[in-house]
């Protein structure tokens, strides 16, 4: 009886060792090879661009994939704000990313410098729909750019669609150029919430030039 119990114990130990070895070895063999790279969250980027940035090749043993390095590669793409790479057994690599949102841009000789809501230039690329151009003599001034972003961020979506550009005449003077040719003098980047409400109002009014630098006393010409 003791001998039988010993054999059973030895068999169990051997089985456990074999299972442990299989758990380590099999994922790094072609038995569990990458067959699909699934990308979620890509809007401006194509899935192919994201896949290429991972450096992962289909057919690679899924257990051998370095998910950290793959995520770093994806995060290196200009449009990517954050990226996560995980394994989905038995054969899929899952990539979840969050892209920057371009709310404004400055046209430079090398292309359009896209700016997110935090005022960071994150890419040189074609501006997407909804991004407002920042123009004017002070457009490249850090303080003016920060002020312009305060203006852009305060304008609601429907109103923003009517704005073609924001001219930074100085760090404290901004003028909105509307797509229909009208202009709106915003003034300094302050009291922006009330000015944004005033903008919504003047967009419905007749006139060629509006001054909402004092949103309590809007003037029209």
From TrEMBL:
Organism: Corynebacterium lipophiloflavum (strain ATCC 700352 / DSM 44291 / CCUG 37336 / JCM 10383 / DMMZ 1944)
Record's protein name: POTRA domain protein, FtsQ-type
Subcellular location, record wording: Membrane
Pfam families in the cross-refs: FtsQ_DivIB_C, POTRA_1
Alphabetical GO biological process terms: cell division
Gene Ontology CC: plasma membrane
Segments forming domain POTRA: 32-100
Domain of life according to the entry: Bacteria
